[in-house]
Each structure stands twice: as C-alpha cells, then as structure tokens.
Amino acid sequence: MHTSSHPTGDATAAATNPVAPHVREVIEQAVRQGVPGMVAQTRDGHRTCWSTAGVADVRTGRTRVPQERFRIGSVTKVFTAAVVLQLAAEHKLSLDNTVDRWLPGLLQGNGHDGSRITVRHLLRQTSGIFPYSIDPAMLERFFNPGFLTRRFDRMKPEQLVKIAVSHPAQFQPGESWAYSNTNYILAGMIAERADGRPFATQLVERITRPLRLTGTYMPGDEAELQGVHPRHYSKNTADGSLTAPVHDVTEQNAGHDSHAWTAGGMVSTAGDLDRFLTALLRGQFLPPQQQHEMFTTTEVPPQAWIDGATYGSGIFSMKLPNGRTVWGVAGMINGCYTFAMGDREGRRTIVTHLNGDWAPADWPSGIHLMTDVVAAELG
C-alpha cells in the first residue's frame, strides 16, 4: 500500500501538511481492504492539507496527486442547480415555470404531467418523476457486466426522459421526495432552452472561469479524461459484491449524449470542488434569493437515500454520528465515489475521492465509507 502526502498545488492555499491522522487512518484502512486508492483534502480556514492512500494506477503503482482530475458523478447536480439558479436570477426562467413551458409534451404518461411539475420540483427532487437509471434495461446496460461493452453508448437526453415516463410516477409533484437523475437531465435541457447555449458553454462562462476552476469541465464526445488523472476501477455490479472481478472503466461516455450528462457526467479536482463548495456555503456565488432557494431543504424519507439527510437544490445536509450537521455534495459513477462536505459557514471542508465503485469489507456501502472519512474530519 502506498501512502503519501503532498501540497495541494493551489497557490492560494498551499498545503504543507498531511491530513489529520484519524482521516488518514480511514482511507488507509479502506485501501488495506482492497480499494485501489483514496484521497482526502481538508481545509480549516486558510490551511489546506492533502493525503492519499493506495494508487492511481494498479498496473504501474503510480500514486495519486493533488492536481489530478476525476469523474465526480452526481456532484454534477450542484453545478447544474447553480446554472439554473443563475438563470432564475437573470429572469431567463422562473423556478415556478413548468416543464411543459420549456419542453412541451416531453413529460407525459404513466402519471407524469409536465404541466404540473415545476423547475423547483426538479431541483429539489420532489417531482415524483421515475429515475431512468433504475429502469431494468438501464441497470443491465450500465450497472452490471454489460457496462464493459455499453459504456460508450450514446443516449440523447430525450431518450432518458422517454425511459422514465415508461414507468409510473413515484408520487404526485411536491408530495414527497425521491432521488431521480431524470430531474437533473430535465434541468439541463431547460437551462439550454432558457439560455440558448449548450450547458457545457454556460458551465465555463458562469462557473468554472469566474471561480478559476481550472480542472473542472463537462466532457463532450470524448471518452478519455483530460490531463493527469487516476484510473477508475469498477466491479460492474449493482449488488455490491466483493468477489466480482475488477475492470478499468476510466474511458466511458458521460457527456451530453450519455446516461450521465447534467445528472452525473462532469470531471473535477479536489481543489476545485473545495473552491466551489466554499463559495456556495459562504454565499459568495449566488444572489441572496437564489442562495435561499439552494439551501431550502426537504427532509429525505428514511431509507430513501442517505439516512438523516435533507436535500436542497443539488446540495444536501447530513447528520454525522456525533450529531453535527454538515453540508455538501456526493457522487458516484462507474469507477468512483466523490464527497465534498463542510460546515455551514464554509470554514472547514473535506473533499474525498475513491477510484473504485465498491466498498471494502468493513463498510456496507461506498456512501458509508465516504461518510466515515467526512466524520473523521468534521465529526
């Protein structure tokens, strides 16, 4: 097992120290139990620390480094929400607009009614729209061994919505909460209609360029990751099996015409995620009204997602074992897990990434492992 610590490479917060021993202990334990590699970047005020355990590449033994880029899965949702909220601030759309206002006729059937579901319902995951990602054919294609041959498949956003509405709606709009990637695919489509520019272009002009997020982007048609990056490893199993073979799935289609796009397709770095999360937590990015919208939360029903969580617009809170509440984002895509969490004031944060999509033996899921890393720093 390789363990090392490095400066962040960020001139504004140069780290000269490894993360705290209790954080290193968790990531090192996970690597001892068979995951390829983990990183943790912590920040307390202006002091940033960074450590790694395991490897970026199991074939070469290359270690992970602070500037590397990795897929962030559903952490993408907070970027999508931020773009939509900026459009609302510019009066290019309203959160009270219905889906039908922007995408007429697309969301109809099996209890789905685009004339009753608003943009706010989409961002808060309170629409009741069925999640296309748990459609049986989609599970077979993307979360089982079939992924090895289907990971370059192209799927239009409209196709994903069509898959969703082929199933019954989960509940009527606003009556409950359920995590659905379909909500954020629709939000991305609406952002493009409202602004008249591709989402990837808006992402650059609205977020990554102003905040100097130099390692963050939405992939286009390319399957490869840009720049320095770890390999991403998958067991291609939906049931969490620890005995399934491991495959390198670094190259995959996650851009505009994919199963991920504005619900989970982006790439970033630990430093960029800390910078963006901090700006959101401190209210330095969105105008006050839209900031209020982002942090107005709905309680997550028990066993529906992350226990004890409340969900805002792309961002969520969760209670750590010691009862402290932290805020941030979480994501999983084939080959990795990402968490970026902090206190509500944005004074202390932690970003952690695992370049494998299974949990080691001591943890029931990747979410539990990542929560333990967060709790080791912020709990």
UniProtKB/TrEMBL annotation:
Domain Beta-lactamase-related as annotated: residue spans: 24-369
Keyword terms, alphabetized: Hydrolase
MF (Gene Ontology): hydrolase activity
Enzyme Commission number, as recorded: 3.-.-.-
Matching InterPro entries: AmpC-like, Beta-lactam-related, Beta-lactam/transpept-like, Beta-lactam_class-A_AS
Top-level division of the source organism's lineage: Bacteria
UniProt-listed PANTHER family: D-ALANYL-D-ALANINE CARBOXYPEPTIDASE, D-ALANYL-D-ALANINE-CARBOXYPEPTIDASE/ENDOPEPTIDASE AMPH
Name of this chain's protein: Serine hydrolase domain-containing protein
Native species: Microtetraspora malaysiensis
